[in-house]
Amino acid sequence: MAKQTRKLNRSWRFFWQLITVLAVCGLVLLIWLDAQVRHRFEGHRWSLPAKVYARPLELYSGKQLAEGQLVFELRQLGYRAVKKVRRPGQYRLQNNQLQIYTRGFHFADASEVGSQLQVVLQAGRVLSMRGEQGQVLHLIRLEPQLIGGIYPSHNEDRELVQLADLPSGFIATLLAVEDRAYYEHLGISPTGIARAMVANVKAGRVVQGGSTLTQQLVKNFYLDAEQTLWRKLLEAPMALLLNSHYSKDEILEVYLNEVFLGQQGKRAIHGFGLASWYYFGQPLNELALHQTALLVGMVKGPSYYNPIRFPERAKQRRNLVLSVLADLNMISNKQMQMLQQQPLQLTRVAQFSRYPAYLDLVRQQLQKAYKANDLSDQGLRVFTTIDPWAQHQADLAMRDSFINLTKRYGKQEKLQAALVLSQRDNGEVLAVVGDRDGGYAGHNWALDSSRQVGSLLKPVIHLTALASGRFHLLSPLDDSPLTIPQADGSVWQPANYDGQSHGVVPMYEALVKSYNIANVRLGMSLGVDKVLEQLSALGAKQDWQAYPSRLLGALELSPLKVNQVYQTLASNGFYSPLSIVRDVTQANGQLLSHYPYQVRQAADPQAAYILQQELALVGRQGTGRGAYRYVADKQLVAGKTGTTNDQRDSWFSGFSGRHVATVWMGNEDASPTPLTGASGALQVWSRLMAQLPYQEDADNQPPGVDFFRTNPAVGVIIDADCAGLVLPFAKLRPAAQTNCGN
Question: Which of 301, 542, 616, 653: disulfide with 566, CB 3.0–4.6 Å?
Answer without folding.
Answer: 653
